[in-house]
Amino acid sequence: MSEHDLTAENKALTNALMRERKARKLAESLLEERAVELFLANRELQESIKTLKTSNLQLLQSEKMASIGQLAAGIAHEVNNPVGFISSNLDTLRDYIEDVRQVIDAQRFSIKTGAECRDVEHYTEINTKAMADLKALLDTIDLDFLMGDMNDLLDESIDGVNRIRKIVAGLLDFSRSHTSDYKHADINVLLEKTLSMAWNELKYKTEVNRDFGDLPAVYCNEGKIAQVFLNLLLNASHAIKERGSITITTRQAGDYVSIIVADSGVGIPKNIIANVFDPFFTTKNVSEGTGLGLHIVRSVIDAHQGTISVDSQIGEGASFTILLPILGLDA
Amino acid sequence: MSMQQNLLCVDDESGILSSLARALRNEHFTVLTASNSGEALQLLSENEIQVVLIDQHMPDIDGLNLIKKIKAQQPFIVPVILSGLVDLEYILAAINRGDVQRFLAKPWNNEELKTVLKQCFHYFDLLHSNRELNDVVSQQKQQLANLTALLKEQG
Fold first, then answer.
1. N or C: which end of chain A has fewer CB within 10 A?
2. B13/A77 Cβ within 8 A
3. Cα(A92)–Cα(A96) distance, rounded to whole angstroms?
4. Is-contact A197 A223, C-beta < 8 A?
5. Beta strands of A165-205 (E only): which ranges?
6. In this predicted model, what pLDDT tens digit does every residue of A263-299 receive, in sequence order?
7. B90-104 pLDDT, tens per residue?
């Protein structure tokens, strides 16, 4: 090969190399641009997932608050009753103590005048008068009754205070959001707790029958499962127009626990029964329901890898069946 | 008036009933208590009762409906509702219709409770003597008419 040829080839190769280098640079910068784009898109996606998660939590929390709101009137009434008799009892206790104080004062007076008296004849006279005064006082004040009733008054008032304490504790227990609190829970106890929360809503028109079986502990999020129960109980109560019954049945079924909440209410029409778990689907007035109750119920049960189904005939009530795995997994 | 004065308190909550009986133990009337509508109607049929103090929220019947039942038996009885402030509109309407004489809110004040009940007994007495006076007036009117007729005949 001549020198000239070699130079030409060298030139051609150098040109090719330059072109290739240029192309690679272009490719690299394009790649980098794309990577940045992907990175940004990824970050955006993560943000939206986070937002979705928070809004889902908020939705859950606000639905919970909405169901507590429905209970508020009943809770106010339930608290007002013990507050009513406790405050009246305290007023009365003040009167009782005033009466007792009068008797004690009269006795003290009689002791004091007796002790201070040096003259025997005078003493008898004073003592007789003091005794007569005391007796007259005891005729108007029934001391035995007062002392006995004071104990009853205090016992009843303490009972009332304990009732209020229980109501407030139940409310706090329920409203606190234990979002990731999974533990081994006794479903029957959880049902009892929820029933006592909803009792004011239920007791005026429903008879609640408990058919609780022996259950193993279920690994679940207690707060959320309680919310599910509350929702089903409130729905059952709303479905009952005048008077009716709610029957709660729990059983172990293999690796699952079944919970059935059945009411004797109006029932769900066939044409909408498929929609009851849809978000914002409601037959209630705006003030009565958010339309999210059963949707959230199902999402909670889904998160526990359980199932929920409904069965209803018009005029014959509705029954909701939940199956929860005993060995649930953290969602 | 020489008639025995009786108050009937109806509430499903035993704590409320015993606190009412306690608070009113020294008043001029006797306090009877019932924890449901059956007991209340039973006591009403056995006793002269002038004033009833009734809880609005009860499992077997609501206060206003119980008052309707009672008034059907004893139209002159004076009803008072004792309730939380929950069903205020419902109760206000009943007061304005004249179905309920007075309303006391839970938690109540004992002094206010005594004053209200005293006024209710007084109101019952007034109505009672009004009815008696009316009877007398109409009797006398009749007598007067008879006399006038007699005079005319002899005229």
1. N
2. no
3. 6
4. no
5. 182-185
6. 998 888 888 877 778 776 677 665 566 666 788 888 8
7. 888 888 888 899 999
DSSP secondary structure letter of residue A230:
H
Q: In this structure, are residues A331 and A313 in contact, taking their beta carbons and an 8 Å threshold?
A: no
Q: Residue B2: phi, psi to the nearest 5?
A: -90, -10
| Rounded Cα distance, A61 and A68, in Å | 10
- Structural domain boundaries enclosing B32: 6-129
CATH number of the domain to which B88 belongs? 3.40.50.2300
SS3 A291: coil
Q: Do B22 and A88 touch (CB under 8 A)?
A: yes
pLDDT per position as a tens digit, A130-147: 888 888 888 888 889 999
Instruction: Specify if B109 maps to a domain.
Output: yes
Query: A142: Cβ–Cβ under 8 A, 6 or more apart, which residues?
Result: none
A201: which residues sit within 8 A by CB, 6+ positions away?
Answer: A70, A71, A74, A233, A234, A237
C-alpha–C-alpha distance, residues B22 and B8, integer Å: 14
- Mutating which of A78, A80, A155 best tests the B interface, going by the most B Cβ atoms within 10 A? A80
Asked, for residue B137, whether it belongs to a domain, the answer is: no
pTM > 0.80: yes or no: no
Token duo for residue A182: 């999974």
In a domain, B29, yes or no: yes
Number of structural domains in chain B: 1
Six-digit token pair at A11?
A: 């030139």
CB B15 within 8 A of CB A156: yes
Contact A156 B18 (CB under 8 A): yes
Separation in Å, CA of B124 to nearest CA in chain A: 26
Q: Compute the distance between CA of residue A216 and CA of residue A312 in angstroms, rounded to an integer.
A: 29
User: Which secondary structure element, helix H or strand E, spans residue A30, and what is its range?
Assistant: helix A3-116
Query: With contact defined as beta carbons under 8 Å apart, do B82 and B56 qualify?
Result: yes
The ipTM, to two decimals, is 0.84
* Residue length of chain A: 331
Least Cα separation, residue B111 to chain A (angstroms): 9
Is A14 within 8 Å of chain B by CB?
no
* Partners of residue A160 in chain B, C-beta under 8 Å: 15
For chain A, list the domains and their CATH numbers. Answer: 71-171 (no CATH), 181-325 (3.30.565.10)
User: Is B148 a member of any domain?
Assistant: no
